[in-house]
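REQUEST FORM: STRUCTURE PREDICTION
Request ID: SP-0412
Submitted by: Lab K.M.
Chain count: 1
Length (residues): 425
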Amino acid sequence: MNPAGRRGTTAGDPGWSNCVFCGTAVGKSARSREHIIPMWLLRATGDPHRKIKIESDPVTGADVVRPASTFHFPACEPCNQKYGKTLEKRAKKAVESLMAGKSIEVSECYWLLDWLDKVRVGLWLGYNMLHKEEFAPKFRIDQRIGIKDRIAVISVDPNDETKGFGFGGLDNQIFRTSQAGMFFRINNIRILSLSFDGLISRFAGMPFPEEMLALSDDPDRHVAVMGRTDYRIKQNWREFQIPGATVIAQSSFWFRNCADHRSFDLWINKNTIPRFKKIPKLRKAADLDQFVQSLLISNATGSFKYHQNSRQRVRFGLAHENSDLTFVRALYLAFLQYVLPLNPQEQIRPDGTRQSTILLAMLWLEKSVQLALRFRQIGIWDERTFGPVVEELQKVYRAWEELRANTLGDWARDASANPVGAALE
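STATUS: Completed
RESULT:
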């Protein structure tokens, strides 16, 4: 997309000084400050003006340290007011209840998931603003809340009197390219927050993507190869489960995916409709752009189930291995098992045939090698981790050899048609 056509930007200006919520250009006189880590949380976890490590410098690797209260970004006044009076207010109530070891209502779980989306995407935007990246962001916070599958794995230790907060899992290409997940520590609460297209649908008994393919004429757009579902909610959520911790999750789909009778029947049927949080209304063409969310899914009662009653209370348990390492390890395993495989490795042509590309293979390889190295750093090294990496490296090499052969073949044909000797004459 031409930067000049993006809301609130001009040619050559990526718009990082625009509102972090909606992307509208905001003049300095009308600009307010949005604390991605809100002031109420900074106060609840210690001195709000204390110096903290924000991140590692992407070039030098040095720690970036600054007062916590200065980690804020531009916002327009309407957005700051709207999010402050609704989302932050309700998230604060939910987090304070969790810190006190209390249960929260299903309705509050929805707000908590929205808030985690806001923090995760806001951190990504914030880091790119700090780096003054040259690319124009394709979305802002309000265009990413609640539109993808999402899950939070939460552990609360009522006897832990630790004060402070911290993050993990942000220094990798999966987060930098998709904001797919993070580990978040708030005093006595540990949270694993993940969100990605089709991430938990297979476990939720909903239609799910088995594979994603990039369009050959527009690699930024993807199509899904759908897997087979029996519409039964699964009880083994594998890497998403940390024994003792409580899981809350929602699946989501874009209504425009129901483009034909087959896909419509896949998403809209007697099995799925009772699971919708809200029945979508279709009155005009623009309504097809809405995202349909499921009811809350949780294992709080001992088994995974959908919660029909928004007033039902959900109690959060204590993980049996309640350490930061346990949660960071689970995050990277989820990246490897469920996020990385949904990154496209092939393109699909208009005629339906597939083709491998060096670019897609290299992007996949970069992410997988980085994850393997993270496993080694946190002490869960397994030689099998490198298996998919080696296979992909071989694929890249084959694609490179094919490209090289084709290129040399073209050069040879050109050379035979235009001999060097003839050219010198």
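NOTES: Residues 387-417 form the longest helix (31 residues).
Reviewed by: T.R.
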